[in-house]
Amino acid sequence: MSSRRRIKIAGSLCAATVTAFMVLPGAALADHGPGHGSGEGGKPVDAAPSGVKLTTELPKKISADNSTGRTQNLTASVSNQGSKGSGRIILAVVGFDGLVVKDVPNCTAIPENKLPKGSNSGFSCAMDNLGAGKTQSYKVAATFDLEKTGKICLPVQSGDTKKTFWQQGPVPFGTTSPSPNAPVTPLLLGTENKPAAPAGDKGGDGDGGDDQENLPSTGVGDAALPLGAVGAALIAAGGAGLWWTRRGDPSETR
Hints:
The chain has strands at 4-8, 17-21, 31-32, 42-44, 54-57, 61-65, 71-72, 75-80, 89-97, 99-103, 108-109, 119-127, 135-139, 141-144, 150-158, 164-174, 184-189, 231-237, 240-246. It has 254 residues and is mostly beta strands. Strands 4, 6, 7, 9, 11, 12, 15, 16 and 17 form a 9-stranded antiparallel sheet that branches. The protein has a 4-stranded antiparallel sheet with strand order 3-13-8-5, with no helix packed on it. A hairpin with a 5-residue loop joins strand 15 and strand 16.
């Protein structure tokens, strides 16, 4: 396999050419049965092959250590609820705002200059095939700044980088009742975090406001945009790019 190759972006808002980075072969985690997570904030983007139905799930509840910010019980899962195998697919795990993805075992870090606009971290997980009725789960090591809001996004793309079959998020984790004196803070999926910051301090409702206009949008409560009006930007990682729908300037390239 060539260590580098050129991938052309095909999209109305981006027409740049970027370099893809090689991924060393590595097996993904073992298959798991259906979990108890949630697909909240997820929806299909491009049509999957006949007989393939891909979705993702995140835990309904995680927690963050109040002293270190490390999250607990954060997993990312992709499922094929169809009747045929998926073929090669790519799952990305991307952090926004106060949620920073530190590691996803057996996956490859997305270079900083290839991350989608508004995100702070991400990993690319390639699978040769996800069988019918199978679920693949990954443990996600992350930190959460409890003085900010925090979001995560899971897009699932075809192995040839041409289609995004599913995208969940960015969806928030958070709490409306912070307890700064407790050892950990429980964080619920789909809940905007309300920082326990002093009055007048940064954070709260004003945190990250400028970036919101540039984030991909499939989460609950986000303004719906027709797919034809949403641009496609490429994340080049793992020897394959990841398509990312986002709002942006038609003259902008990456």
